[in-house]
Amino acid sequence: MASEIENLIKALAKLPTIGPRSAKSIALKMLTKKQDLMHPLVIAMEQAIKNTTICSICNNLDAINPCHICQDNRRDQSTICVVEKISDLWALEGTKSYKGLYHVLGGVLSALDGITPDDLDIPNLVTRSQNPNVKEVIIALNTSIDGQATMYYLTDYLELSNVEITVPSRGVPMGGELDHLDDGTLITALNSRKQIEN
Amino acid sequence: MNSWVDQGVILSIRPHGENGGIISLLTQNHGRYSGYVYGAKSSKMRGILEIGNVVRAEWQSKDFEGLGKYDIELDSNNIVNIMDNPKKLLTLQSLCTLVDKTLPEREEHVNIYNSVIAMLDSFNNDMWEAVYVYWEIGLLKELGFGLDLDKCAVTGTTEKLSHISPKTGRAVCEIEAEPYKDKLLELPKFLNPNIENLEEIDIFAGLRLTGYFLQSRIFDNYNKLLPDVRLRLLNKYS
To answer: Which of A114, B91, B113, B173 is the most exposed place for a label (fewest CB within 10 A)?
Structure first.
């Protein structure tokens, strides 16, 4: 096999969810359909490399800096939703129900992975939350031990800012069947039950 | 195929590959033992693979030297009721991190296992913070660096013990400690059996005391600082 093809397979195999066999299959498909598949992909990748950047305000990935979310004055400027990573932002944005601003933290505190507060973008969040326009900070981190510990750490910092700190509710997922849920989810759901409004 | 079945407490989870993870367990009869878990990132396993959960683990490997793989079933979920308490959460993280970082692998430590289970149970108790300080003293003892808190190192008295020597790890009574107070570590009041009320300042003194000895007796040997999460726990009480 030519080294050029081997290099392409190796590069593809480094991508998430793609193993060596899939990489070979993708490489073969692309090389046999250069015009239809490879050229558009190369152009899209070149444009993405050239034109994408990290937003200096919220750490989102976008073609402009500040990103289109931070620049959009129609969005609710009084609410900041803190998320762990950009994919979480995309997930929330995909719901089309949240209209506020975001802040991508860049991870959660983890003793084992060696992620300390210095590795997270906390100073910018504190500065943003001290803006008089900001009234609420939603801490939407994973409901894992590390996520919750990070939430409490942020809460200590944000206490100095005059903002309401909230977290998304936890419990039974949409379409969830009780007998298939784990104990932790069931206990949390029961602990945070609410009265039915008629 | 080599295998065993045991009960264990999850100490750490590290992602490995696309969907798997390497977990470290403190098992009842096999000590701290690591293994690979297939599908560790699946929605089914995520709720189970959290530190502090007690699980039934089956470990299998072609040879005993290898990493091996785990089949995990949840035995008891210990984290749900402490998720809403930042101090308990930090304490659990500190407990699991200290065991994971200080205990040698594949060495039986039944005392530590039992003490970790007792500590997990004590989170429902009002005195859980004092129990945690006692647990760290027990950890030091199990690792060969026990503190002598029963009697004064100078006079031998068991009354009015107020400080502890950072050099020897032995208690000193109030009168003998007076001239050297600035060089000695304060003994938290709850280590005195007659004290019933627990105050935050005593927990701070207890955590500072055990933190000092964990650092100087154990982590200094590896040229490492106390884990960040343990430092944050101390700061929570300062």
So the answer is: A114
